[in-house]
Automatic annotation (TrEMBL):
It comes from the Bacteria. Residues 229-248 are annotated as: Disordered. Keywords: Signal. This is Beta-xylosidase. It comes from Streptomyces doudnae. Residues 1-31 form the signal peptide.
Length: 441
């Protein structure tokens, strides 16, 4: 059966309206929230469905890109929202359009430290549009995984409107001069995994040639592990191997013959690496050299203590921010005092990780908290404290401060950090709290 005239006219009206929804103008663009991404204008070339019977339309689109995390770490997944702010000035016909007939899809172009496109899509949802009434804006979302550190720019890309009203029709619009202007930028940082490997010894001393048991935890499941003696910062010829179980732990034995040994290490790979190793654990080879006739051996003991930390309080009140503006909520970490009285060759590392900030209005992600560490070494301390890098703390953790391995380590240290929580502009009002956990190893 052939189509009647009114039916054809209705179909053409529908396709014309789909085109009009994508031939956006720059005037009357909605303002972005303070602190959010910037609205940008760019030329678009829209191709109406054949049934519309009209030529392609070259117009101006106003759009904005927003993200859920402006300071991600490499490996994080970022959610992107592409909003066409004002699809059309008005409905150019007297025909009322029903609700929920428009399904948008599109692309967001990445630039800078990372390239490629992010595929975005929106729900089939729109308010009814009366004849000659204004078209609503629409949003599309998608995700991408951060693969490189640095500034990553996001620009609006090509998009398409699919309408489901009487007919299924598509109206694709492409950027005339790509890429479109940058609407949002995220700054990605490298994520350095925290080394949780650790070893304990069955005994802290022995005669030359004695075997010492070594227990390790936190290693890569199934990995081969080398056990070795250390003389200060130099590895000795004493060596053995073990294999980590499915839980990352192992039990091995090392025969120590070198009389200069002061510690024992365990590591993955072909050579010692602080990133893939544990220790040194203090070990002393007992001197069994006979005393000559007419001589006396005089012995004293300097007892090694513990590695410990204390903090000047357990609560930090960050500064308030305004709804609609958001931004940096700042404060200072309660001073942490580290005492390393072990007297061996091993340094230490103080790391921290934070939970999401929860409140009545929802959550602020852990990745929004950053810090600027500082560390001071007390006079006379054998070791020198190193402050961690400024950057994101997050739920995976970051280093606050550390001291290196050495022939003799130890001392007293004070550790501080400036804190800054990047609060999104329209976070619901209320109190939000997270827990920052510090680990000394």
């Amino acid at each position: 059966m052939g189509l009647t005239g009114p039916t054809i006219r209705r179909r053409r009206l529908v396709s014309l309206l789909a085109v009009a929804a994508l031939a956006v103008t720059a005037s009357g663009a909605l303002a972005c929230p303070a602190g959010a991404a910037t609205n940008v204008d760019f030329g678009t070339h829209c191709i109406p469905p054949d049934i519309a019977g009209i030529p392609p339309i070259d117009g101006t689109t106003t759009a904005a890109i927003t993200v859920d995390d402006r300071t991600p770490e490499v490996g994080d997944t970022v959610t992107v929202t592409y909003t066409v702010v004002k699809p059309a000035a008005s409905n150019p016909t007297a025909l009322d359009l029903p609700a929920d007939i428009m399904t948008p899809t599109g692309k967001v172009a990445l630039g800078g430290a990372q390239s490629g496109d992010v595929t975005v899509a929106g729900p089939k949802k729109n308010d009814p549009v009366p004849g000659y009434g204004a078209f609503p804006s629409f949003s599309m979302t998608g995700t991408f995984k951060v693969t490189a550190p640095g500034a990553i720019t996001l620009s609006p890309g090509d998009y398409n409107i699919h309408t489901s009203y009487i007919l299924e029709l598509d109206t694709p619009c492409t950027v005339i001069t790509p890429p479109a202007p940058v609407s949002e930028t995220v700054t990605a940082t490298s994520s350095t995994p925290v080394n949780n490997r650790a070893i304990t010894l069955g005994s802290a001393s022995g005669k030359p040639g004695d075997a010492v048991t070594v227990h390790g935890t936190g290693f890569t499941p199934g990995a081969g592990v080398t056990l070795a003696g250390r003389s200060g910062s130099t590895q000795t010829a004493d060596r053995a191997t073990a294999k980590a179980g499915t839980d990352g732990s192992f039990d091995g034995s090392l025969t120590v013959s070198d009389r200069s040994t002061t510690g024992i290490v365990a590591y993955e790979g072909s050579a010692w690496s602080a990133d893939l190793g544990a220790g040194p654990a203090v070990y002393t080879v007992d001197d069994t050299t006979p005393v000559p006739d007419g001589s006396q051996r005089l012995t004293t003991t300097v007892r090694g203590g513990a590695l410990s930390m204390s903090q000047a309080g357990d609560a930090v009140q960050l500064s308030a921010v305004d709804f609609g503006q958001g931004g940096a909520s700042t404060g200072a970490l309660r001073t942490v005092t580290v005492k390393d009285y072990r007297g061996g060759p091993a340094g230490w590392s103080l790391t921290g990780k934070v939970t999401d900030f929860s409140g009545a209005g929802g959550k602020i992600g852990a990745g929004k908290l950053s810090w600027t560490p500082a560390c001071t070494t007390a006079a006379g301390s054998p070791s020198t404290c190193r402050a961690g890098s400024a950057g994101t703390v997050g739920s995976s953790g970051a280093t606050l401060a550390s001291t290196p391995d050495g022939a003799l380590t130890g001392g007293r240290f004070t550790v501080d950090a400036g804190l800054s929580l990047d609060v999104p502009a329209f976070t619901p009002p209320g109190s939000y709290a997270g827990v920052l956990t510090l680990t000394l190893s």
